[in-house]
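In response to reviewer comment 3 from the previous cycle, which asked for concrete evidence that the modeling workflow produces usable outputs, we include below a single protein chain processed end to end. The sequence was submitted unchanged, and the resulting structure tokens are shown without manual editing.
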Amino acid sequence: MKLLTLIRHAKSDWDNDLYDFDRPLNERGETDAPIMAEFLAKNLPKPDLIISSPALRAASTAEIIAEKCGYPVEKIKYIDELYLCSVSEYIEVLIEQSPKINHIFLVSHNPGTTGFTNLLTGELIEEMPTCGVAHIKLDLYKWEDVEPDTGKLVKLFTPKTI
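The workflow returned the following structure tokens.
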């Protein structure tokens, strides 16, 4: 069995002229990310690997989560393809991971986070909110076996529900 925790980045700042990739977290994001990170550290198994989009808002969220979960920030794996990727690209990222890794935290963007959660679990989540988390159990022994409907949504966490 594998565990996958899909995390949408915390709320970001639109009040600037920065390129989308470079948008930082806004005040609410700076508040929500540590609260969610602490909740995850207390309520979920520690991740064996944290993978993140390299976009500033996702990377900042991943770093905050890593620090609170006792995961070395320098070991976060940044994958360019996770920036505004399609659902199929999530599968491509996962199948490349070692079968020795049992729990992955994956931090990225919408609509991909919502779409991938729905694809893996057969659930119908309309939109994962910022800093929302889908904790999924996958009935497989190697990541290369991940495909649609192989997961079960264990719990959906949002800043408003924790």
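The chain has a mean pLDDT of 95. We consider this sufficient to address the reviewer's concern, and the full set will be provided in the supplementary archive.
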